[in-house]
Fold this sequence. Notes:
about 250 residues, 8-stranded parallel beta barrel, 11 helices, 8 strands
Amino acid sequence: MRRKLLMGNWKMNKTIAEAKQFALASKKLSAYASKNNVDIGVAPVYLGLSAVKEANPDLLVAAQNVSQFPKGAYTGEISIPMLQELGIDWVLIGHSERRSYYGETNEACNAKIHALIENNITPLYCVGETLSEFDAGLTKEVVKRQIEVGLAGLTASDVNNLVVAYEPVWSIGTGKNASKEIAEDVCHYIRGLLFDLFGDVANKIRILYGGSVKPNNIKEYLSAEDIDGALVGGASLDVNSYEELVRNIVE
């Protein structure tokens, strides 16, 4: 049975002090989640990574992005060795905001995923369609391309710890949710794609749903067979809301 996972994506929110305050306040929650076989974590901005990691070592801590290059003339980028020095072993890759605002392609995601796996860091790979693609009935075509190109050249052993998050772009931060049926249909489809690419290991890969996930709907989403957790934005910023999310997964 796949272990449930809740990952909060803080985006460009929280100062170092605010990140540390959250981490300290979540220590008891981490113990509660672990006791109930749920993994929980957050993805702070780069400056907050150390503060969260040190204040609550039991939280999974992910970077929101990384360069595929180990060093060099790449102004504004952060390398894998820099993250490793902080003890970070999770990274979000291909979030829709990286794709839409900064032109990140499936090929760029693929290069980053290869680099992370080579360095024993877990990629949390985000896929999903825009509103125009959804309205045109292109959801599965878009997701298939993102999966096949983003994960090209990997083996079954490479993806053993991979996590995939389905985030329909049209539901992120809009309050417009994909129904449980839509979310499960696409997550089931993703698992099928993973099975075609990697065989039985697809049954071990955790697939998350993200997009206006809140305490009052997370339980419904996670009741679906192929949804193993959630990637949550705004509802993960407040520690009380985050605690509600966790308790609604467990209870």
